[in-house]
Structure formats: C-alpha cells, structure tokens
Amino acid sequence: MNRAPGDGLSAGEVARRLGVAVTTLRSWHRRYGLGPDQHEAHHHRRYTRQDLSRLEVMCRLTGEGMPAADAARAALTVHPLESVERPRTGSALSARAGGGNTIPVGGAGPEARGLARAAMRLDVATMSSVITRMIGARGVVHTWDHLLRPVLAGVGERHAAGGGLVEVEHLLSRTISETFAAVPRPAGAPTPRTLLASADEEQHTLPVEALAAALAERGHRSLMLGARVPPGALAAVVGRVGPTVVVLWSQAPATAAAGQLNGLRGTPLVVAAGPGWPRDGLPPSAARPASLGEALDLTLRWLPTAG
Ligand code: B12
C-alpha cells in the first residue's frame, strides 16, 4: 500500500499494515483508547500517522510479551492522545487483548505468547529481538525449551488442526535459524570435532541448529551440514574430517532409515537425535538423547575442554 497516512487510513488498511486483525484494532480502541484520534460524526474513522505510531508501539510491546494493558499505557505515554479524552482505566484496562487468531503455547511464559503474536503478524523484527534477548539472558538451551519449542509445537498443532499458517511456520523457522546463526562462534577454535546433520530427505533442521548454537556458547565450533544429507555424502564428510561426534537428526519415521548410521561406525560418539528414530533396530552404540540439554551434555563429554 503506497498511500501515506496523511489523509488517514481505514481500520482495514491499518490492520493490514500492522498485521493484526481488524477485530484486534477495535478491541484495542474499545479497551485502551488506542483508536483514531480524530473522529467526525457520521464518518468512518480514519487513522492518522500519530494513531499509527501509537499502534506500532502497542504491537511491538505486546509482541515482546508485555501484557496488552501495560503496552497500551506505554503507547499512550510515548504518543499521547491530543484531542480525544483519554479513555477508561481500571478493570477495562486489565482485560487482555483478543484477536482470536492465536498460536497455542500451553503454559509457556509471556515471551512465548509475545513471540507467537509476533509470528502471527509476520513481524520479523520483534520475533528476532524476543529470541535474541532471551538467548542473551538465559542461554540457548533455556530459550529452546521455554520459548521456541512451545511456539513451534503450537504452530504444528494449529497447522495439523486446520492446515494453513505455512507462511508463519516458514518465517518463524527462518528467524530462529538466523538468530541461532548469530550466536558468536568461538574465534580461533580448532577444527570442529562435531558434525551435525539432518537425515536423508529430512527438512527439519532447527534442533541441530539449536545444538550448534549451544555448543558455540560453550566455546565449541561444529560443522553443520544442514537439511537432507544423503548417507553417501555424510560418510564422505566423516571420512575426510574424522569427527569425534556425529549428530544425525530425524524428525519423522519417514527419514529414519537405520542404515544411514552404518557409515558412521568408526566415529567415537554417534547420536541418533529426534523423535523419528525407531526405538529398536539402531546400532546399540548410538546414543538417544531425550532433549537438547541431554544432547549437549553427551556431546560435551567427548570434546576437549574449551579454553
Ligand atoms: C518448523 C517445522 C517445519 C519447517 C522446518 C524448518 C527447519 N529449518 O527446521 C518446514 C516448513 C521445512 C517443515 C516441513 C515439513 N514438515 Co514440519 N514442522 C515444523 C514444526 C512446526 C517444528 C519442527 C521442530 O523444529 N520441532 C522441534 C521440537 C519443537 O519438537 P520435538 O520434536 O517435539 O523436539 C523434542 C524431542 O525431539 C527432544 N530431543 C531429543 N533429542 C534431541 C536432540 C536435540 C539436539 C534437540 C534440540 C532435541 C532433542 O527434545 C525436543 C524438545 O527440545 C513441527 C511441529 C512440531 N511439533 O515439532 C512440524 C512437523 C514436525 N512437520 C510435520 C510435517 C508433516 C512436515 C512436512 C512433511 C510437511 C509437508 N507436507 O511438506 C515437511 C517435512 C518434509 C521432510 N521430508 O522433512 C509434522 C510431522 C508429523 C510426523 N511425525 O510425521 C509436524 C509434527 C507438524 C504436524 N503436527 O503435522 N516443517
């Protein structure tokens, strides 16, 4: 949309611009007074640039996990209403913003709800800042378990229930990949001793990207082959690099042919990670972690202490 909001934007235009539902805008207006500043009787309300700025603050803060009432208060402080009486406080302000179109995150905290909202709005900047902040404050493993996993599982749940949300899933995945890749890799570390890959035809990679970032936090580089690694290619890299640890991710049984692990026999630690791998039929020496934390601990046990 090219028109500047000089003449005012309709609620639909504002909703599209901000990536929220029109019903959410109405609810923010009704509950918190974050509506169009100027309102002429018998005319549709038009949102000015000032109104839009206020709503942008509201979106950013709720995206970062701030409760809607607090975010509204902050938005009104940054860009106060000039010509309209500031509406109600108290019980109306403590109500939560609706929107209906949400990703379930179970009992996860406000950051997860904020990330889920930002993902629904396709708001990459907020997604990225929420994830980066938690990684900085709590580390990769905590961020994976308490922020990313609940939101990813919620996206999967919504998708399985009714299809759709593919664009949300893609953008969220890409943003997670980028934030993991931005975790600083230790400079001058020796050749990586850990090889990370997703199984043959396996497109899911985020869990191994999480492990690479968690290892980097502990001072270890790893070699990441990424998605859909054919067994021949995996064996070739193992032959060239001679890693101490190989982690192979399978998300679903369709990509979990046990034969892929055969070419890894000379590797001291082979980790068959992910829910795809069968309970039986894997080489007995293959480790089967139950979580990112466990996969990290297993791997670290085989690596020299990082200096
Ligand atoms: C993001 C995503 C994608 C992205 C992946 C992007 C990327 N770069 O990874 C894209 C869009 C590519 C994708 C594609 C597909 N996807 Co997908 N996807 C997901 C989603 C939403 C998250 C995946 C994820 O990272 N999960 C990781 C965590 C959140 O889940 P977890 O497996 O429960 O993890 C725990 C354990 O594995 C354990 N663990 C044990 N060992 C280890 C080791 C380590 C290192 C770690 C970190 C954890 C760990 O701890 C984890 C918790 O931390 C899931 C939903 C879900 N619930 O997972 C669907 C999901 C996995 N996908 C699904 C499907 C069907 C597909 C497609 C087939 C869709 C299609 N029709 O094309 C394709 C797959 C094609 C292929 N051959 O691989 C299904 C799988 C169903 C099944 N079991 O067979 C799911 C469950 C969605 C659903 N409910 O239907 N997907």
From TrEMBL:
InterPro entries on file: Cbl-bd_cap, DNA-bd_dom_put_sf, MerR-type_HTH_dom, MerR_fam, Meth_synthase_dom
Region (Disordered): 85-108
Domain annotation HTH merR-type: ranges: 8-77
UniProt entry tagged with the keyword DNA-binding: yes
Domain of life (superkingdom): Bacteria
Gene3D superfamilies per UniProt: 1.10.1660.10, Cobalamin-binding domain, Methionine synthase domain
Record keywords, A-Z: DNA-binding
Compositionally biased tracts (Gly residues): 97-108
Name of the protein in question: MerR family transcriptional regulator
Top-level taxonomy: Bacteria, Bacillati, Actinomycetota, Actinomycetes, Micromonosporales
